[in-house]
């Protein structure tokens, strides 16, 4: 196996810890949802094992896969979404973390196949516009991964609502991808609530641009344009 042993150990630890954030922010039910992280300098990533309860996750239970999605190290089977994560890492070299959830409000938008419109400054800050919808895709092959990559390539949003399914987010680190998943659910809920009493007011495109630019600079994150 290529990849520094200590680097992989540290990544397993941090990815294991980040899974607790999905529970803390109420983004997952039962064993649904998963986080992965690319191993720096190697064609590998670490990911949650399949069907393991969040309470039972340990750094040792996090498995290591190659970029084809095949298990390289670990005693458990990798997440059933591993092929999708692997596809993203193969096609988006700038991505180092991927998160998947079925968080309630965001998945409700996905069930309708409706993008979340940019009607909050927090959305302009984090996503630089609307959160787009990706195609309907069955689990198992490359279809989900291809849908994520095709939807997010050239898009400022790091979150995509996969139609009738749920949320995938990407980030320059696993933590950044988790943040995007938390923020995606937060704005999905707020915009849903706003809809109950009328039509939310859009933000002018110029204002979206300046909010996005300012936020990305203030927080020192790389521009994705
Ligand atoms: Zn799913």
Summary tags:
binds zinc ion; about 220 residues; alpha+beta; eight-stranded mixed sheet; L-fuculose-1-phosphate Aldolase
Shape: globular
What structural category do the secondary elements indicate?
A: alpha+beta
Write down how many β-strands occur, each being a DSSP E stretch of 2 or more residues: 8
Bound ligands: zinc ion
InterPro entries: Aldolase_class_II_sugar_metab, Aldolase_II/adducin_N, Aldolase_II/adducin_N_sf
Keywords: Metal-binding, Zinc
Family: Belongs to the aldolase class II family. AraD/FucA subfamily.
Enzyme class: isomerase
Question: What does the secondary structure layout of this molecule look like, with pairings?
Answer:
Blueprint: H1 5-24, E1 34-38, E2 44-47, E3 63-66, E4 71-73, H2 82-91, E5 97-101, H3 104-112, H4 121-127, E6 133-134, H5 143-152, E7 159-162, E8 166-171, H6 174-195, H7 205-218
Parallel strand pairs: 6-7
Antiparallel strand pairs: 1-2, 1-5, 2-3, 3-4, 5-8, 7-8
The site of zinc ion has 4 residues, from loops.
EC number: 5.1.3.4
Protein name: L-ribulose-5-phosphate 4-epimerase
Keywords: Metal-binding, Zinc
Please give a structural write-up:
It is a single chain. The protein has 225 residues and is of the alpha+beta class. The chain has one domain (5-218): L-fuculose-1-phosphate Aldolase (3-Layer(aba) Sandwich). The protein is built from seven helices and eight strands; from the N terminus they run αββββαβααβαββαα. An eight-stranded mixed beta sheet has the order 4-3-2-1-5-8-7-6, sandwiched between helices. A hairpin with a 4-residue loop joins β3 and β4 (71-73). It is globular, with a radius of gyration of 17 Å. Zinc ion (ZN) binds next to loops.
């Amino acid at each position: 196996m290529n990849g520094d042993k200590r680097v992989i150990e540290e990544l397993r630890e941090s990815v294991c810890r980040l899974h607790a954030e999905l529970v803390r922010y109420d983004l997952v039910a039962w064993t649904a949802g998963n986080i992965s992280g690319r191993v720096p300098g190697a064609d590998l990533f670490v990911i949650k094992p399949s069907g393991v309860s969040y309470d039972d996750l340990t750094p040792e239970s996090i498995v290591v896969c190659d970029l084809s999605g095949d298990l390289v190290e670990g005693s458990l089977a990798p997440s059933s979404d591993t092929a999708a994560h692997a596809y993203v890492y193969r096609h988006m070299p700038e991505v180092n973390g991927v998160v998947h959830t079925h968080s309630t409000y965001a998945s409700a938008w996905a069930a309708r196949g409706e993008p979340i419109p940019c009607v909050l400054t927090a959305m302009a800050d984090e996503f630089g516009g609307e959160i787009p919808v990706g195609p309907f895709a069955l689990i198992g092959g490359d279809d989900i991964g291809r849908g994520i990559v095709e939807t997010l390539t050239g898009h400022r949003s790091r979150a995509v609502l996969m139609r009738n399914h749920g949320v995938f987010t990407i980030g320059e680190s696993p933590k950044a991808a988790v943040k995007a998943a938390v923020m995606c659910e937060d704005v999905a809920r707020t915009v849903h609530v706003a809809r109950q009493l009328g039509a939310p007011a859009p933000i002018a495109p110029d204002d979206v641009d300046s909010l996005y630019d300012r936020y990305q600079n203030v927080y020192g994150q790389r521009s994705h344009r």
